[in-house]
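Q: I'm writing a short methods note and want an example of a predicted protein-small molecule complex. Could you take the sequence and the SMILES for zinc ion and return the bound structure as tokens? Please keep the output block clean; save any remarks for afterwards.
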Amino acid sequence: MKKQEPLASLRDRLTQYMKEKSMRKTPERYEILRVAGLANGIFNIDELMLLMQKHGKFQVSRSTLFNTMELFFNAGLVNRHLVATAAHYELRTDRNPKAYVICRQCNTITRVSTSTAKLALQNLIVRYFNIEDKILYMYGVCRNCQAKNREEAKKNKISRN
Ligand SMILES: [Zn+2]
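A: Understood, no commentary inside the block.
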């Protein structure tokens, strides 16, 4: 099998899915997929909107982006993270195990290095279940919020004295 660039195989899958569902192959959908590929990891609708405004050949509404990401999710093109305040998406360009840290204070979600995720998840199997994606979420407090918390604590200490 010839090795394709990751986005090309997602494009093929999108074409296949729209064909199966008898949907119109609108150029907007392909353009949204292309621009999502520029996101470099996890993104939410607002971030995708900004990328479209900056790099897109078409300007589309927020609801079009939302509907398209739901279509991509149903077609298996993206993973959807419903873990922070807004849905986040990520192109499914590879099947490596993935791990994320989510800050409880500012709700940012960040992917941690693939090797960390591999170590934690590669040997995980569930009997009688065909696992397609291995995704690990870890909750805690991010570096920025830790710094903010230290500042707050310092201020409180000073005002108490
Ligand atoms: Zn934070």
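A: Remarks, as requested: The mean pLDDT is 90. The chain has two domains: 1-94, 95-161.
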